[in-house]
């Protein structure tokens, strides 16, 4: 076992990786630079902590092209900007996934203690909690209809009401959508679990506007056409913050549900959360449920 270095095993894990994290290989390559050809059994928790410290010192990188048309390689430049705690934690998670995969494949010696035990993670912020109303969403969808992108209004309406991520929406096919009963099925989400998302009738109307007349079947509902500039223009027209990315639609879906009085399990189900910690960030918006509970307790 000692004859196999961290580099050898990490390259093998990267080659075999079939998960949905597109940055896994990039993050594990950082650890290859840290541990190099060291024997896998020589790495301990202190070594991992030292690697995290090095990552923090390095900060954000800027990737730039080589400048030559006949070459596709790129370079990197340190920006001097700090990494977000969530980014650091994803690097830690990638290393943890690496050791779990080695254990699953029985490539670690019996009795091996993972160096990930006791590794501290960075404290993250509570995440985005969007202050938005139903009227704001309706106005945004209306301005999206002004775009040359004929599908912008429909994909925005779907994202704001179902909370589905952009990747899931781009993979959605017409045979996954039931407009009569107003739901769509997603076979696999970011956390690996399938989900059924429901949407209101006004969103179904948006979908009917873009539905092909014939040959729906496995045709993509939205496809992968880029619409970042159109999205920014729609935000400006609707008078909404230009800092919003399309991922904000997912937080909008949760915020609207919480403001309407939806309980924690409902928000978890809507956003396909496996744990309550993610949905808890919206609980403070459910003031009606809190008011009812206090009134019931004290009257």
What would you note in describing this structure?
The structure is a single chain. The chain is mostly helical. It has 2 domains: 6-104, no CATH class; 134-288, Intergrase catalytic core (hpI Integrase, Chain A), CATH 1.10.443. It has 13 helices and 5 strands. It has helices at residues 6-16, 24-35, 45-58, 85-104, 134-144, 152-162, 166-171, 201-210, 228-238, 248-259, 264-271, 276-280, 287-298, and strands at 61-65, 74-78, 177-178, 183-186, 195-198. Helix 1 packs antiparallel against helix 2, helix 5 (134-144) runs antiparallel to helix 6 and helix 10 (248-259) packs antiparallel against helix 11. The radius of gyration is 23 Å and the shape is globular. It starts with 5 loop residues before the first helix and ends with a helix. The relative contact order is 0.10.
Order of helices and strands: HHHEEHHHHEEEHHHHHH
Fraction of helical residues: 40-55%
Domain module count: 2
Q: How much beta, percentage-wise?
A: 5-15%
Under CATH, the topology of the largest domain can be stated as hpI Integrase, Chain A
How far from one another are the termini? 69 Å
- Superfamily (CATH H level) name of the largest domain: Intergrase catalytic core
Sequence of strands across the biggest β-sheet = 3-4-5
Tell me, what is the CATH class of the largest domain? Mainly Alpha
Rounded mean pLDDT score = 84
Number of strands: 5
Low-confidence stretches: 68-73
Largest sheet report: 3 strands, antiparallel
Quaternary status: single chain
Structural class estimated from helices and strands: mainly alpha
Q: What is the name of the CATH architecture of the largest domain? A: Orthogonal Bundle
Per DSSP, the total helix count is: 13
Which term fits the overall shape?
Answer: globular
Q: Radius of gyration in whole Å, from Cα?
A: 23 Å
């Amino acid at each position: 076992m000692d004859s196999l270095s961290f580099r050898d095993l990490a390259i093998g894990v990267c080659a075999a990786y079939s998960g949905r994290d597109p940055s896994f290989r990039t993050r594990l390559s950082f650890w290859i630079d840290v541990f190099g050809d060291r024997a896998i059994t020589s790495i301990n928790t202190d070594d991992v902590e030292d690697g995290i410290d090095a990552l923090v010192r390095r900060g954000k990188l800027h990737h730039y092209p080589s400048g030559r048309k006949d070459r596709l390689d790129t370079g990197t430049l340190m920006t001097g900007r700090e990494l977000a705690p969530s980014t650091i934690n994803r690097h830690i998670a990638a290393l943890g996934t690496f050791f779990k995969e080695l254990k699953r494949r029985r490539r670690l010696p019996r009795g091996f203690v993972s160096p990930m035990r006791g590794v501290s993670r960075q404290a993250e912020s509570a995440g985005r909690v969007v202050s938005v109303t139903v009227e704001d969403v309706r106005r945004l969808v209306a301005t999206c209809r002004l775009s040359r992108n004929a599908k912008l209004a429909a994909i925005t309406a779907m994202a704001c009401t179902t909370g589905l991520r952009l990747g899931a929406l781009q993979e959605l096919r017409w045979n996954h959508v039931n407009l009569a009963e107003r739901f769509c099925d997603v076979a696999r989400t970011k956390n690996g679990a399938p989900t059924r998302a429901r949407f209101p009738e006004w969103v179904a109307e948006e979908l009917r506007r873009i539905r092909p007349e014939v040959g729906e079947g496995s045709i993509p509902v939205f496809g992968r056409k880029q619409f970042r500039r159109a999205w920014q223009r729609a935000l400006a027209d609707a008078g909404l913050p230009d800092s919003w990315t399309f991922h904000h639609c997912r937080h909008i879906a949760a915020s609207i549900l919480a403001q309407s009085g939806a309980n924690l399990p409902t928000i978890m189900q809507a956003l396909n959360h496996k744990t309550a910690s993610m949905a808890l960030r919206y609980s403070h918006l459910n003031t009606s449920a809190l008011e009812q509970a206090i009134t019931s307790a004290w009257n």
